[in-house]
Amino acid sequence: MPDQIFLLANMVITVAYAAITTAIVVPVARAGQLRTNKLAVATSMIFFSCAVGHALHGVMAYGTLIENAAMGHPASSTAGWSWASAGWDMLTAAVGVYYWTLRRGYGVLLGKGAIYVDPWGQSRLDQAAERERAARDVAEAQRATLATVVEHSDDAIVGLTPEGLITAWNHGAEKVFGYAAAEMLGRPATILTDQPGAEQQSDVLSRIRHGRGGQSYEARRLRKDGAPVDLALTVTPIVDQTGTVIGVSAIARDITAAKEAAERQRAIEERTNRAQRMESLGKLAGGVAHDFNNLLAIIGNYTDFAIDQVADRPDVRDDLRQVRTAVDRASNLTSQLLTFTRGDAIQPRDIDVNASIAEVHAMLERTIGEHITLIAIPARQPLIVHADPGQLQQVLLNLALNGRDAMPGGGTLVVEANTATLDGNEVNMQPSLPAGSYARLVVSDTGEGMSPETAARIFEPFYTTKQPGRGTGLGLATVYGIVTEAGGCINVYSEPGLGTTFRVYLPLSAAVPETGTDAISQAPPPRGDGRTVLVVEDEPALARVIARILTDGGYHVVAATDGREALDLYDQHGCDALLTDVIMPEMSGPRLAEILHHRDPGLPVVYMSGYSNGLLGTTHVIDEDIAFIEKPFSAADLLYKIASTHRGTNAPTRL
Asked: Of 64, 184, 427, 602, whose CB count within 10 A is highest?
């Protein structure tokens, strides 16, 4: 029985060693390394030798079993096989020693998990490993550089989950929105927007989640202090190797200043185009007026001749006198046209605008009608300008009569004079003026007002909104011609249903020192030192300009577009001063101030309006002694006015 077990064990071991030999030799042969991969060949030789040795042991065991079975006693004929087996075992030992020396030589004898690689192959592996390490180092350096660029970019770079939670927040985002990274990480991006903006944001994220790619668009978002900021947004998906959206990258660039500059440039171009159109119309009207005057001279003189010749025919004489009257009216029109085109002879001299206002007031008192309340507010001191006295009176009369016609049911007409300082950047002057101090004539009414489209054309000759037969369309064109001939400009502010204010700016005469109490000092205005000003203005473009002026002046600005939004922002941020428009939809500036004064009785308030202070005071829209600044105003005007207000000095205004 032991012999049978010995035979079986040797046969099993033989088969196992043969299989291992085959498993080593076949791949090495296929790789063409039978000559070069000595370690593999030596390994296969060991297993082959072991396989043969155990096969010899098996043969001897089998022979022994056969002989014992036949003869009934042990046989001695296996001695030859024993010597063969011993010799083969010695050969196997020698191969083992050879294998040992090879592994020692290749340095892989004790290496954990070591395998054989030929020297040339090892060199290639080393080079590949070096290249891989170099590539990893370059990639790490690039990632570090990119992270630095992202962190220090002036653009806001924000990482989001597909659902809109913030996962990354760079330094640029802190500058643009005012929030630190610790305040924003893990919070929803809707904190940066109002309700319409949140809906837009949700729609964009939904599109990205459904694989519709990135989007670029412009939108308005809110800073931490509630101030709006215009942004150019690029939103792109972040996907994994399977194409699944795992995040969103949002890059936001602040374009508030760019939009303001574009709006200013557009206004300048519009003003330039209007001036060119007026100049072209003026040349055309001037040519027509001169030629028409020649025709009128012929018609008028021949009419006079005919009147003299029909003294005995009263009916014909009366008809000819009607013709003569029409000639005189036509001559009047051409005279206005020539004034508009600067072709009429003028006699300018130094005059006091207060005297002109007094004379016009005296004339209007007798003719303007009892349904109109006429108020004249002269400057506190003489204002000397170099202009033609008759033409200056004509300007005031035309503007006053224009205001009267806009109030058929009655109202208030205010004519006032003061000084103003312009910074040269005003965009709604026709034409523009360089920076400096000017005399300002203001004519305000509480009439029907005009739409922006009508206001843009009122200085064009023959353009009128009056009923046929009630206006020639030359009154305001004549005003424009006279003012520009005197080196000045004119500004109009109007709102339908509320009224109109005309402002005429004329250069002060060099013969008189400019020491008006209304003139602004040339010293720089004091800085705001971080005081918070709540700005309420329903015109977004103007609100951005005001916010920029105050921010540059050292103030912290919180901006609202109406009274209700202003109350919400006051509850969130508070303020040190209120700067509000007077006339606004839904809630007026005085009403807003009254509500805020209930919460903070000492809150300083500065009102601003396109209407004059004189008009608003006389119509009791606001008190006459409150802090007020008229539009348009310069940056210095606004900063001085805000700096002059102090807590506790402004009482609540009545409505």
From this structure: 184
Output the pLDDT for position 43. Answer: 79
Burial call 107-120: b when 16+ CB within 10 Å, e when fewer: ebeeeeeeebbeee
Cα–Cα dist 180/196, whole Å? 25
Please name the amino acid found at residue 517. Answer: T
Answer yes or no: are the C-beta atoms of 248 and 226 closer than 8 Å: no
Contact by Cβ (8 Å): 358, 396: no
Instruction: Give the 3-state secondary structure of 283-304.
Output: HHHHHHHHHHHHHHHHHHHHHH
**From its phi and psi, is residue 489 left (phi > 0), alpha (psi between -120 and 50) or beta?**
beta
Q: Is residue 95 within a helix (H) or strand (E), and if so which, with residue range?
A: helix 79-106
Q: Is 571 exposed, middle or buried (0-12, 13-18, 19+ CB in 10 A)?
A: exposed
pLDDT digits (tens, 9 = 90+) for 359-389: 888 878 877 878 888 888 998 888 999 888 8
d(CA 446, CA 198): 41
User: CB within 8 A of 552, min separation 6: which ones?
Assistant: 635
pLDDT class of 439 with cuts at 50, 70, 90? very high
CB 224 within 8 A of CB 177: yes
Spell out the residues 6+ positions from residue 434 whose beta carbon is closer than 8 angstroms to its own: 422, 424
How many CB atoms are located within 10 Å of the residue 244 CB? 11
Mean pLDDT for the stretch of residues 515-544: 71
- Scanning 153-221, the segments in alpha helix (DSSP H) are 171-177, 181-184, 195-209
> In the structure encoding, which two tokens stand for residue 604, read together?
């300083």
Cα–Cα distance for residue pair 120/108, rounded to 1 Å: 16
Q: Which of 556, 441, 569, 447 is nearest to 503 (CA)?
A: 441
CA atoms within 13 A on the CB side of 445: 28
CB 211 within 8 Å of CB 242? no
Q: What local confidence, expressed as pLDDT, does residue 454 receive?
A: 83
The CA–CA distances, whole Å, from 558 to 37, 218, 228, 240, 610 equal: 80, 22, 9, 42, 22
Instruction: Provide CB contacts within 8 A for 197, sequence distance 6+.
Output: 219, 220, 221, 222
Predicted confidence band at 625 (pLDDT cuts at 50, 70, 90)? low
Determine the Cα–Cα distance for residues 347 and 131; give it in Å rounded to an integer: 91
Q: Which two tokens stand for residue 225?
A: 């202090």
Residue 24 in tokens: 């080593």
- Within 10 Å of residue 397's Cβ, how many Cβ atoms? 19
3-state secondary structure of 274: helix
What is the residue whose two structure tokens read 């998990």? 113
Q: Are 421 and 391 in contact (CB under 8 A)?
A: no
Pairwise CA distance, residues 585 & 213, whole Å: 41
Query: The tokens of 601 are what?
Result: 């009785």
In this structure, how many other beta carbons lie within 10 angstroms of the beta carbon of residue 364? 20
* Pairwise CA distance, residues 237 & 248, whole Å: 5
Using the structure block, give the residue that is written with the tokens 């060119």. Answer: 276
Helices of type H across 456-539 = 475-485
The DSSP symbol for 537 reads -
**β-bridge partners, 493:** 501
Residues 475/402, Cβ–Cβ less than 8 Å: yes
648 in the Ramachandran plot: left (φ > 0), alpha (ψ -120 to 50) or beta?
A: left
**Tokens at residue 618, please?**
């006389």
User: Tokens 């203005």 correspond to what residue?
Assistant: 537
**Contacts for 87-94 with beta carbons within 8 Å, 24 or more apart?**
88/49, 88/52, 88/53, 88/56, 89/53, 91/49, 92/46, 92/49, 92/50, 92/53
